[in-house]
Write a structure and sequence with these properties.
The protein is an alpha/beta fold and about 260 residues long. Helices cover about 25% and strands about 20% of the residues. It contains 6 helices and 17 strands.
Length: about 260
């Protein structure tokens, strides 16, 4: 997967104050650096809030393949012509994937395939950031799903619960990366989609956010639509936060 493609990011801005000489505290989530890892602390008033799933000690377990999706999956992206397949990387929420597959079939008539769930190699995690470079994950997907990555007719979207960043940029993390209609590949991380202003959001909100991000990629990579400046469009070109995802529409202008 080439490094010069578009990507969507969450900005590196937040209000902060020193707490116990270890962390900066504001209304937003942040990383507190240690010698061997990066830990999350969330605060709202006097109440400490839990970090997103797959943080800290949970991360290793989230690298394992999501075996609950095996009955739904195939070794290859079956079908003919231009088609879409999800590539589950790590222990992505199986209900989320099932609901997404059902949604696109019901609302767009798209039969999205699910490839065999794959483990994320632990050595790929940056030990200081406790994040995974998105392009490196793209390379792993390409190594595992060789035919799907090579085909210009297969829209391949990796889904992962692990926090991503782009090592070529100064952004702290990314929601996803994508290529182009001619090279229809992308990756979406649900990690930051669990965050709310006062704590973690429920599964319905995570689904809506993931759906909007994936719908944008389907619009660009499958239908060949163009990005738009309208923040209410599902093709909005400047996604900088979960608030942007919440404001976006979710219906592509296709029949």
């Amino acid at each position: 997967m080439p490094k010069d493609r578009g990507y969507d990011i969450f900005p590196r801005t937040f209000k902060a104050r020193l707490l116990l000489a270890l962390a900066f505290v504001g209304g937003l989530p942040f990383f507190a650096s240690t010698l061997i890892a990066v830990a999350f602390i969330f605060v709202a008033g006097d109440r400490f809030l839990p970090p997103p799933p797959c943080s800290g000690s949970e991360q290793r377990g989230c690298l394992e393949p999501q075996t609950e999706l095996e009955p739904l999956s195939h070794d290859g992206c079956v079908g003919a012509g231009r088609r879409i397949c999800f590539a589950p990387m790590g222990k992505i929420d199986p209900d989320l994937v099932r609901d997404l597959v059902q949604y696109y079939e019901d609302d767009y008539g798209l039969k999205i395939g699910v490839l065999t769930p794959t483990r994320i190699t632990e050595q790929l995690i940056d030990p200081a950031r406790q994040q995974l470079d998105a392009a490196t994950l793209g390379d792993l997907i390409g190594h595992i799903h060789i035919d799907e990555m090579a085909s210009p007719n297969i829209v391949l979207i990796g889904l992962t619960p692990v926090d991503l960043y782009d090592e070529t940029s100064s952004w702290r993390f990314v929601f996803g990366i994508r290529a182009s209609y001619e090279e229809p590949k992308g990756i979406v991380s649900t990690y930051r989609m669990h965050l709310g202003s006062r704590g973690l959001v429920d599964d319905d909100v995570v689904f809506e956010r993931a759906k909007k991000m994936i719908t944008k990629y389907i619009g660009l990579l499958y239908y060949g639509l163009e990005e738009r400046d309208d923040p209410h469009s599902p093709l909005y070109n400047n996604i900088l936060s979960v608030r942007d995802l919440d404001r976006m529409g979710d219906r592509l202008p296709v029949d």
